Amino acid sequence: MTIDSHTTESRRKARSARNVPALVLCAIDDAMAQAWRTLLSTRRPRVQVHRGSVLDIEAQAVVSPANSYGWMRGGIDAVYARAFPGIEERVRKAILNTHGGELPVGEALAVPTGETMPAWLISAPTMREPGELLAEDTVHPYLAARAVFELWRDREVDPGRPAAEAIDVIAMPGLGTGVGGVDPQNCARQVAVAWDEVFGG
Prior knowledge:
Blueprint: H1 3-17, E1 22-27, H2 30-37, E2 47-51, E3 61-64, H3 75-83, H4 87-99, E4 109-112, E5 120-123, H5 140-154, E6 156-158, E7 161-162, H6 163-166, E8 169-172, H7 184-199
Helix pairs in contact: 2-7, 5-7
């Protein structure tokens, strides 16, 4: 066994020992907080609910339920843009470099925030165009959540550094529940399905 393969095997074992991230579901209103609480169960032991800002959480990553082009001018994305100077430019550059300028709904990428904590912003679009009102039967919250969870499980945040090693805690706001108009209960159900599909439940 080579040193490289031994290192890879060690990392694989470390990831399997902690096979899910801690997920903190954040809500700034009662309706979203109540909806998130439906995800709390013994089958999802590392899932928690926080009534307050996503930036209150000591997390290695925060989720941006962005648009496909990486514009961060409204809702929680505007909050991130103020908190992490230059983050919109970094997100748009990463989208350009990896997806030709448009990150499809159902895909996610991690971008450094420039801060110690959270060190990463996970851009996971819930809409193609900025300010898009989503259809009542949309599955975009599910697609965005699944993309976040699969990024954590399968991808690297830096070359040779798996996301599962770099990120223990993910802070997630409502997905599509602001400008997108998704009902909080619908969002919570879809995030639960995505979690159980990726991590088991």
